[in-house]
Amino acid sequence: MSSFEEAETEETVTCLHMTFYHPCQEDKMVFRCLNFCKREQVRADEMAKFGRDSNICHYNLMDTRVSRIQFSLQFYRKLNSSEFCFEIKNMSKKTKLIVDQTELGYLNKIDLPWKCIICFGDYQILAEIQEGESMDYFETHLHLAEVPILQERCLPSLQPTPENGILSSSFPSQGKSPIEIDENES
């Protein structure tokens, strides 16, 4: 047998791609401590922490409005499954964390969807999970967005825009079925 045939099978690694946006990045350089465009390995038994305290968090956000630990990500394998997931937990007592449309208060946690937008304060983070097989570690791959992620992705708004272009601030039609109106009616 050749050495190629005897070599270990290469394992794929789960990678969490995260694209960061803040409107004041150019002025304040809030992401200056993040390592963009280079994959980093994180041991499976470690929690990935994001916040301003460099003694606790590996991913530092240089902004006094960010909590010492803003949020954490835990890598895990689902019970009786080979599927790997991430759990996101809000670690901030002052700021709510929004994952897609789910609002998380302090110490609330949920499974991170395969593709979602995480928001807190003026921060927007697009998170995308690339599946892998390794149980020992996962990778993070950070990117910097030039434009707001919510704007760039053209995500559907929670409320349809009426033809007259005027949006009401409340959701009066939520939970009701649509009503068809003839365009000639006033």
TrEMBL record:
Residues 163-176 have a biased composition (Polar residues). Residues 163-186 are annotated as: Disordered. SUPFAM superfamilies: SMAD/FHA domain. Its main location: cytoplasm. One of its GO terms (cellular component) is cytoplasm. CDD domains: FHA_TIFA (cd22714). Residues 49-121 form the FHA domain. It is found in: Cytoplasm. Keywords: Cytoplasm, Immunity, Innate immunity. The keyword Ubl conjugation does not apply. GO terms for biological process: innate immune response; positive regulation of canonical NF-kappaB signal transduction. It comes from the Eukaryota. Pfam families: FHA (PF00498). PANTHER family: TRAF-INTERACTING PROTEIN WITH FHA DOMAIN-CONTAINING PROTEIN A (PTHR31266:SF2), TRAF-INTERACTING PROTEIN WITH FHA DOMAIN-CONTAINING PROTEIN A FAMILY MEMBER (PTHR31266). Belongs to the TIFA family. This is TRAF-interacting protein with FHA domain-containing protein A. It comes from Syrrhaptes paradoxus (Pallas's sandgrouse).
